[in-house]
Amino acid sequence: MVTTADRPATWDLFRSSGEDRPVPSARADAITTALGVWFTLGLFVDAYAHANLPGLETFFTPWHAVFYSGFAAVGLWVLWLVWGHVREGRRGLSAVPLGYGATVVALPVFAVSGGVDLVWHEVIGIETTTDIFFSPSHLGLVVSMIVILTSPLRSAWARHPAGTRPSLGAVLPGVLTLAFAASLVLLFLTYGNAFLRDSSSVVGALSDADDGQAGRLAASIVITTMVLVAPLLLVARRWALPRGTATVLFAVCAVISAVLTGFEANEIMIATVVAGALVDVLAAVLRPSGARRAAFWLFGFLAPVLTWAVYLGVASATVGRLPLVAEFWTGIPLVAGLVGWALAALLLPDAAAGAPTAPKGAASV
Prior knowledge:
By secondary structure, the protein is mainly α. It is built from 12 helices and no strands.
């Protein structure tokens, strides 16, 4: 019978030594964010290459090298953070910084998904159209990637208790990684990303009630609304929404979308950034929070209405006319607003007072 004393010494590395988990420094989160952005941009470069370079039939490309080197960099950095606490005498979960627990699990998941992706491409081939977003190996990569990328957000979640009012600077790594995570979701929902259209496409789609284009545009607006508004509501439910959060979120999503289209619709990109700034003004006026349900719900409704009113207004001004079907351009922002209100109601069915500071080690994974 093997006793505890007979277990190999390496086994002890995985048994928690019982200390409260350490809170990562702002510098550590900033480095994680920088490496995570490298990692994320590598995926966007790779996706662009697959979509625009015909005959790309190999796994071993410069774009994959950028992507997977980004993963290696962020993975080694996270392991270095954990190892630093192991050298202090911590073991198991007690050595993993707050916010990085799920990351430690996601790293091997990503590595396994990458191996599966290699085999998948060698056996089945390289996806070049919409099928790229449904490949099981790609889905494993992007889900684990989002978990890794948002480590600084979970770290900030632990550092700043519910009901507090952190500045944007204090949580900027978390906000940036949240914005890039949203852009990753939009990448894998490319078929529902309204930012990929140009002004002529928008106005044309809403000028004919019979060809189905209006329905497809409306559906993409609903999908994009959920991707944009859900992160804002999530942050607003935890803290007083830091000023500038919406601008950062909208700008990252808009610029990444513009890159994917080769900057063919710069007016849509600019409109999206302006809409983000206006949503920040709206948040400053309404002050949505977990303790202010009415303001939270109203923000959930008005933020999408404002966003898509700007989007449709800029598209119409660029083309020089309004869409011909008035019901579309007047009603679509309201539909988006109702979707945002529904998200707000789901996230905050009842007002909740700001929670007290959580015990160390229990606030975040």
